Amino acid sequence: MSSEWPLKELEFIANEVTVGYVGSMASEYVEDGVPFLRSLNIEPFRVNANEIKYVTPEFHKQIKKSALRPGDVAIVRTGKPGTCAVIPDWLPDANCSDLVIVRCGEQIRPRFLCYWVNSVAAHHISSHIVGAVQQHFNVGAAKKMKVAVPDISTQDAVVEVLGSIDDRITLLRETNATLEAIAQALFKSWFVDFDPVRAKAEGSQPEGAIQGCMSAAEGRMPKAAMDATTAALFPDSFEESELGLVPKGWRIGTVDDLCAQITNGGTPSRSRKDFWEGGSTPWFKTGEFCDGFLLEPSERITDEGVVGSSVKLLPENAILMAIYAAPTVGRLGILTEPSAFNQACTGMVAKGSVGPWFLYLTLYFGRDWFNSRANGAAQQNISKAIVAGYSVVIPDDNVLKSFNENAELLFAKIRAGTVQAQTLTQLRDTLLPRLMSGQLRLPEAESLMEKAL
């Protein structure tokens, strides 16, 4: 660590160090209300809005000690102790459990503290984790954590360098979220709500325009009528089916009918070093699924591991779905290269006429159904057979072709944004410890950042 930066214990540079709510929460959650963060919502440098819970304003007031506000620094106590993020402006009022809450004083910037905790403070945190069954990081240990405290101008300069990278990563993620929402909206309109068919049945011109969706992908969201060629692909009436009214001429099938291959994964023997050491084949676990493209696995296996075990190798754009441990059940991943995966997932390769994006979004919109079928005493799971047997409405090939041509443009942009975000994340994670330890000076870091951005 740089000798130029003095060390001070956190309790002496923070206005307050406290802890999130400790107690049972199962009966307190409601559909809408005050956001309630748990440890799974805190990732390094960011708050993940997925699976945020909510509590009533009344309960929020009862536990005001654990209230959060923008600028607070949240540190995970259990799960992944020490993971740290700054509460953003889009959470003006929130509450939490399983978190250490730090309100910074005049000597320390919240984002600088966040960078410190996520990098240099790892040793202090790991050496102060307690608990035999569930390990956690105590608020008392957090107060004693030593933090480098350079002058505010230096902190601001460090935050500017690293923050520029984080801001770019955030922008890429937000753009991807917009593109994903467009793809989901188009799928829902065509294949869940059957909007084009309903419009034609009423004698109206279908909207939802592919052109409108694609313009939205460029940053605009205009209303536009569907072009005549696309509109002509849809029927103008419905017929009865086992799933209710469906567009005339479309058929009822299953996920199995959409797939050229559907299989569960496996895990090579951990006792066989030749299955793991020096491996080059990606091997994914369900904890890495984030409803998007899978880029870099936490583990890889060797060719011997592929041949000598029950793993299956699936190609680029195959879809993986978690089938163990509700509510993880239904979480999805898209392969970006030939890869293997563990037995907690079902892997699917779409038929050429169906395409990966129709399959992916079919599974995405079926998530509630899959979770409703999860069963088991200790762990709520589903099976490959349940996945394969999920009933779906299958449009004719021309409608599928039109959808996939446009979905491909959206998902190509999403993939490119995901790759860029990962590249920038790797740059930040490379610069961070070197910058904080004094191995890298600010001018050098700024030069590296400018080249990357």
UniProtKB/TrEMBL annotation:
CDD domains: RMtype1_S_Vch69ORF1407P_TRD2-CR2_like. GO terms for biological process: DNA restriction-modification system. This is Restriction endonuclease subunit S. Belongs to the type-I restriction system S methylase family. Transmembrane segments: none annotated. It holds the Pfam family Methylase_S. InterPro entries: Restrct_endonuc_typeI_TRD (IPR000055), Restrct_endonuc_typeI_TRD_sf (IPR044946), Type-I_RS_S_subunit (IPR052021). One of its GO terms (molecular function) is endonuclease activity. Residues 247-397 form the Type I restriction modification DNA specificity domain. It comes from Halopseudomonas oceani. Keywords: DNA-binding, Endonuclease, Hydrolase, Nuclease, Restriction system.
